[in-house]
Design goal:
Distance between the termini: 27 Å
Shape: elongated
Number of strands: 8
Strand order of the largest sheet: 1-2-3-4-6-8
Mean pLDDT: 91
Low-confidence stretches: none
Length: 202
Amino acid sequence: MDDVMALGEVGPIVLEFLPVDSNDAGDQARYTVLIASMVGTDQAIPIMATFRRSRDVVIRTQLANAWHRFDTKRYGDEVIAHPNEADLFFSVSSLQELQALHQMGGRPMIRIDTQMSAEQLRENIDPSTLWQLWLTREAGGGDLSWLSCFYNLRVLHLTDRDAEVNVTGLAGMSRLRTIHSNCKVVVGVDKLPSSVAFREYR
């Protein structure tokens, strides 16, 4: 892996030596995508796009996680719009990325890797498609009742270690089944119905 990381740091010149086979779902393909994502230039986008139809969830995850390294629109059009959505979190690192994802019709599993307001999230996530949401930053001033607009939400991940959140307002979400959290303080767990499993991890 150290050798792979070193190649990624060489720069765009390494791209012409990468093996590119859209039918490859092994370690070689994974290393190719990883190196191209580390280069992060426009020249790397065609290589990333070669693997956009891959059935390998590791490769698809690498593609989804690399969006922030490239031009939002071009990478979104050529790569993000295409992978199979099964078991795949689409990581969003800016409001522009979230808006682009929304324009693509939304995704069932979204991970928010930057600070956004509750209003921005409500306006740019389609509640009809979302069933799993991962918030790495607290939104809404700690009161998570704003999430009730996502009526199809089944799984919620809360991974802001410094956050103090209140989940009382989620008690009426009929389809919510699991909340994963490592937040500093979580209030209202006792108000959740028995149908919702609260899982705390550190």
